[in-house]
Structures are given as structure tokens and as C-alpha cells.
Amino acid sequence: MWLYIIIGVFLISIGLAVHVFKWYFLIAGYNTVSKEKKAKVNTKGLGRLMGIYAYVNGSVFILVGVLHALGLKSVLIE
């Protein structure tokens, strides 16, 4: 149960780092792209997308942790 909640909080904090604090270096593969290709990437939009993706995944993990704490079975837990 606690592991799910910790992972959820971690994912939400990663989402905040990328989306709000604009730590784009956390996006996998972004730093390895050449400068010409980086100029073509909508960095703000990509950071927003990755942040929202991390928020949703973190929320799902926290929800599963809460369901597990309440004794309810979910699809992710066997």
C-alpha cells in the first residue's frame, strides 16, 4: 500500500518538475537530440504533455494505494 502511494507522490513531483519548473532535461531522449532538431520541438507543449501524463499516472497509483488500504481489490493488485 505505502509503495503505491510513494510511487504516486514521486510521479506527481516529477510532473511538477517538468511542467511547472520547466526541468526539460528530465524528459528521456531530449538531451541527446541535436540542436537543429531541438529547435523544431515545441518544448513547452512537450513539457506540459509529460507533466500531465505524470500527474495522471501518479494519481492512479495513489488511488490504487488507497483502495488497497480500504481492503478493496483492484485490477492492478493480485
Shape: elongated
- Alpha carbon gyration radius: 16 Å
Task: Determine the N-to-C terminus distance.
Answer: 13 Å
pLDDT average, as an integer? 91
Largest sheet: none
Give the class from helix and strand content and strand pairing: mainly alpha
- Tell me the β content: under 5%
Order of helices and strands: HHH
Number of strands: 0
What count of helical segments does DSSP give? 3
What are the segments in which pLDDT stays under 50 over at least 5 consecutive residues? none
Can you offer a commentary on this structure?
By secondary structure, the protein is mainly α. Helix content is 65%, strand content 0%. It has helices at residues 2-19, 35-40, 43-69. Helix 1 runs antiparallel to helix 3 (43-69). 17% of the residues are buried. The mean pLDDT is 91.
Write the layout of secondary structure elements.
Elements: H1 2-19, H2 35-40, H3 43-69
Helix pairs in contact: 1-3
Short description:
With 78 residues, the protein is an all-alpha fold. It is built from three helices and no strands.
Which characteristics define this entry?
78 residues; mainly alpha; elongated
